[in-house]
């Protein structure tokens, strides 16, 4: 990553911190650039809400629940607040508007470190997420998605 960012004029100084020290700095906003991942969820809403929702943040020096970048945009917060009670079409529209704000303001730089490809043995069980029914991320470590997978599985 350091080598890839250098041509862009970004010179990273890598600091190999103990996990507790890293977490403390991340949660309190004591960083210039941090590399971390959010658990996400079955739709973009979940990850975007963790990153961009103002009430998930805190003043510098205090622990944030997520939104470690301290992104504050009241218009984006209103979009998130409308999501839970909106119909499916409105939810899609809300997420598109939220994504547009993220692209415009760039509070984070998304990176991809792996793909969500999985293989299953369906000899005895069926109900796994598929390309035709991608109801969840299927990784055993994906919370809360793994619960959804377990609820959909059944014996053949």
Q: CATH-wise, what's the superfamily of the largest domain?
A: Dipeptide-binding Protein, Domain 3
CATH class of the largest domain: Alpha Beta
- Mean pLDDT over all positions: 89
- The helix content is 25-40%
Largest sheet: 2 strands, antiparallel
Strand order of the largest sheet: 1-2
Q: Determine the structural class based on helices, strands and strand pairing.
A: mainly alpha
What is the N-to-C succession of helices and strands? HHHHHEHE
Morphology call: globular
Beta fraction: under 5%
**Count of separate structural domains:** 2
Number of helices: 6
Instruction: Give the CATH architecture of the largest domain.
Output: Roll
By DSSP, the count of extended strands is 2
Radius of gyration: 18 Å
Per the CATH scheme, the topology name of the largest domain is Dipeptide-binding Protein, domain 3
Distance between the termini: 45 Å
Question: Low-confidence segments, ≥5 residues, pLDDT <50?
Answer: none
What distinguishing features does this structure have?
two-stranded antiparallel sheet; 156 residues; 6 helices; 2 domains; mainly alpha
Question: Can you offer a commentary on this structure?
Answer:
Strands 1-2 form a two-stranded antiparallel sheet. The chain has helices spanning 2-5, 19-28, 44-52, 74-83, 88-105, 145-152, and strands at 125-126, 154-155. The model has no long low-confidence stretch (mean pLDDT 89). It has 2 domains: 2-105, Dipeptide-binding Protein, Domain 3 (Dipeptide-binding Protein, domain 3, Roll), CATH 3.10.105; 125-155, no CATH class. It starts with a helix and ends with a strand. It has 156 residues and is an all-alpha fold. The protein is globular and about 55 Å long. The longest helix is centred in the middle third of the chain and has 18 residues, at 88-105. 38% of the residues lie in helices and 3% in strands.
């Amino acid at each position: 990553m350091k080598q890839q960012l250098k041509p862009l004029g970004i010179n990273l100084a890598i600091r190999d911190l103990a996990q507790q020290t890293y977490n403390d700095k991340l949660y309190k906003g004591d960083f210039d650039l941090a590399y971390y991942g959010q658990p996400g969820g079955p739709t973009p809403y979940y990850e975007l809400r963790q990153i961009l929702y103002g009430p998930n943040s805190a003043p510098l020096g205090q622990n944030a629940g997520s939104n470690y970048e301290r992104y504050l945009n009241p218009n984006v917060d209103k979009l998130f607040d409308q999501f839970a009670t909106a119909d499916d079409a409105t939810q899609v529209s809300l997420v598109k508007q939220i994504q547009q704000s993220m692209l415009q303001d760039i509070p984070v730089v998304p990176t991809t470190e792996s793909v969500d490809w999985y293989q299953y043995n369906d000899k005895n069980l069926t109900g796994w997420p598929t390309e035709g029914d991608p109801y969840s991320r299927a990784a055993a470590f994906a919370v809360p998605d793994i619960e959804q997978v377990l609820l959909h599985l059944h014996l053949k």
